[in-house]
Each structure stands twice: as structure tokens, then as C-alpha cells.
What does this fold into?
Amino acid sequence: MSADVALVEVPYLELVHSLGSNFLFVGLGLLLGTAGLVDPDSSRGLVAFLQWVALPAILFRGMATMDKSSIQGLALAALVFSKALVVAGTGVLAVLFSRREDNKWKSAGICALFSALTNDVSFGLPIARVLFPAQAFYLFIPIQSLLFEPICLCLLEVGAASDGDKGKPLTKGHLARTVLRGIATNQILIVIFLGLLYNTLIGPWLPNFATSCLKTAGEAFPAVALFHVGLKMVGNTSQLSGRGLFWPLSLSGIKVVASAFASYYMAQWLLPQ
It folds into this structure.
């Protein structure tokens, strides 16, 4: 296996540092918002920057400069299989622990979608950077966006039809249109596609100016995203108790930590060398 994607022993100290820095920025957002130094309702600009500038910069640069020859099929299979286990396990847990009055299909779809979505990149990328080499961790996002989000959208549509949310029965055509529309309008997938297209047509190289701009925008993403998470918690912490605390913590732990470690150990099992 190429040294670029070889897995090494887990650097637990670096992992602890990564998790600590994550919670530090979340705490800063919560602290400054609670103290009134930052208005939690004035964060639309941060959200727009994260969604349309910082995250696309990370993904485009990663896809455009990725050395595709260094990626082995078994390593990719490990990522797919481990992510599938996480998504399926989350959906099953949601069905088992949902209340009787809840729509089980909807609960499964929402929880599975939460575990597959890319809004955890602020937490997930620092952890994945510790566990995986530079080229490999970029594979997390295309896999979950392209393979698992459509499945979760199907569950949501089935749930909506079963409780009559849309006042009409679910048809295969409507389901297909909903899923395809979700894929076609996903800016993350669009950026990933453009990055891969650039890589294929031109090669894994970017001009120095483009590299500098994308790197600057991308490096701002983790800190700003985590700060925004803490900011949005202002005024909502009293609601996080009992069942209201169990699900957010459980799902966040599953998709942020369990997913990365499952992929790591699955790849180690398939590629022991």
C-alpha cells in the first residue's frame, strides 16, 4: 500500500488535543454569547461564510489536489462499510427507542440523516486528520453525501407519506424526484464534482494564488464553525436535560467519534499491512 494512505498507530494524545480544541471553541462561543459580547441572532453572516465559502474551499482544494492513484479500493471499501454500519445502526436505534406516537420511519430517517450529514465537519475533520493521512480523510464527505443521504431522504419521504403529511400517497416517481432534487441542489456535492472534474482534466495541481486563497478560507472553517455551534447554544442549554440531552449527545458522539474510529479499524482489518 502507498505510504500516502498507510494507516499508523492511533496518536491518542493528538486526538485528545483535537477534541479539546473543538470544545474550547464551542465554549468560547457559548461564553461570549452568554456574556452579551456577541449577539447570537446576528450569526447569519457566519453561516453564509461557512456554507458558501469555507467548506467549499476545503472540499474543492481536497478534491482538486487529491492523488487518486494513492487510494486503494479496500481503503475506500472500509470507509463505505463502516459508514454504512453507523448510518444503519443509528436508524435502528431510532426505531427501537422512538416513542409510540412518533413516526418510526421519520425518526429513523432524521437520525440516520443526522449521522450521515456533513454538518459535523467542524468536529469530524480535525479527528479524521489525526486518524488518517491528508489524502484519505477527504473521502469521508463524498461517501456520506453521495451514498447515504439519498437513502435517508427516502426514509423521510416514506415517513411523510405514511402519516399523510402531504395529503397524497407516495409514488415511486415522487420519491425519485425528491431524492434527485436533493442531490442536484446539494452545494457540497456540486463542489466535490467540480473538484474531481478539475483533477481529472488538469491534474492534482492548483496555481499558487488559488491554493493560497482556498487554504486561507478553508483553515477558518473549523474554528468559526465550532464558535457558531457554541453561539447557537445560548439560551437553549436549559432545554438540554433528560431525553432532550440524550439524543443530541448520542447522535453527535456516533457521527463525530464512532464513525471515524469505525472507519479506521475497519481499514486496519482489511489492510493489516
